[in-house]
């Protein structure tokens, strides 16, 4: 499989903290790739660089054969890269369905019929289809702020899928989610992947990662220290050393 997304020798520092140091990661088209590492290893910073929220000090980001380094989040999203965040970004005072309508209004202008009314029948039908798919259609009329944390994660995934991105970056999708919803989320990811969707997933839940991912990259101190299929990565001494030999860093800026 060819690389749909590639970061090449990415470096990023915040003050005196080197969050990323020559970080190269490849995500094959059609794969579910995991990005793991201890707290402070640079995982979320790499997501931010890929999606335009942080500009790298050095290195390049390539997507579908084109260099997108330094592109704005809006341009990255419009190009076909969707993402979720560690802390869900939803509109708590809008209903679940209204959140989805907002997503439809910001899902990439070139894909929308310019004469279609935002929030019209087509948007509402698509929104409900996605809510059905993620299993939360029964909450469509509820305020998003009343959802459980796991349901918010599913809403955020639904929100991202409105734009039908080619690749979805999930930042700790299983974090704080109860086991039944984790299983539901994993099943939805597998179904989307079977239909051709590519995923890059940051996650601390090793059972979730090992069961779901085809390929895993391990970050430590901003550098990839190991890559390979789950079985190989699980027993790699460098991975064990990264997790057991590195103190946790509370600085979320470099997590």
Shape: globular
Secondary structure: helix percent: 25-40%
Low-pLDDT segments, ≥5 res: 109-117, 246-255
Sheet/helix structural class: alpha/beta
SSE order, as H and E?
A: EEEHEEHEHHHEHEHEEHH
Question: What is the gyration radius calculated from CA atoms?
Answer: 18 Å
- Give the oligomeric state of the chains in this entry, treating copies of one chain as homo and distinct chains as hetero: single chain
Query: What is the distance, rounded to the nearest whole angstrom, between the alpha carbons of the first and last residues?
Result: 29 Å
Query: How many strands in all?
Result: 10
* Biggest sheet layout: 6 strands, mixed
Give the DSSP E fraction (strand runs of 2 or more residues).
15-25%
The overall pLDDT average reads: 86
Strand arrangement across the biggest beta sheet: 6-7-8-3-9-10
Output the number of helix runs. Answer: 9
Question: Would you summarize the structure shown here?
Answer:
The protein is 35% helix and 24% strand. The protein has 255 residues and is α/β, with parallel strands linked by helices.
């Amino acid at each position: 499989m060819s690389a749909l997304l590639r970061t090449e020798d990415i470096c990023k520092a915040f003050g005196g903290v080197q969050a990323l140091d020559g970080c190269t990661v490849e995500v094959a088209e059609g794969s579910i790739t995991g990005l793991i590492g201890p707290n402070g290893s640079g995982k979320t910073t790499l997501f931010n660089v890929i999606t335009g929220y942080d500009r790298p000090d050095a290195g390049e980001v390539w997507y579908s054969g084109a260099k997108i380094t330094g592109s704005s989040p809006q341009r990255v999203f419009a190009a076909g890269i969707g993402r979720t965040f560690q802390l869900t970004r939803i509109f708590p005072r809008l209903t679940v369905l209204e959140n989805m309508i907002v997503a439809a209004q910001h899902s990439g202008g070139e894909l929308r019929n310019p004469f279609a009314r935002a929030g019209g029948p087509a948007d509402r039908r698509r929104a409900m289809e996605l809510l059905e798919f993620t299993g939360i259609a029964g909450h469509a009329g509820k305020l998003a702020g009343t959802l459980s944390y796991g349901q918010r994660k599913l809403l955020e995934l639904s929100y991202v899928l409105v734009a039908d991105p080619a690749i979805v970056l999930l930042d700790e999708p299983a974090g704080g989610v109860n086991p039944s919803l984790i299983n539901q989320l994993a099943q939805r990811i597998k179904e989307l992947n079977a239909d051709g969707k590519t995923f890059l997933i940051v996650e601390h839940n090793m059972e979730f990662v090992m069961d779901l991912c085809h390929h895993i990259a391990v970050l430590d101190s901003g550098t990839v220290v190991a890559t390979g299929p789950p079985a190989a990565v699980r027993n790699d001494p460098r991975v064990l050393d990264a997790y057991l030999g590195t103190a946790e860093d509370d600085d979320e800026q470099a997590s």
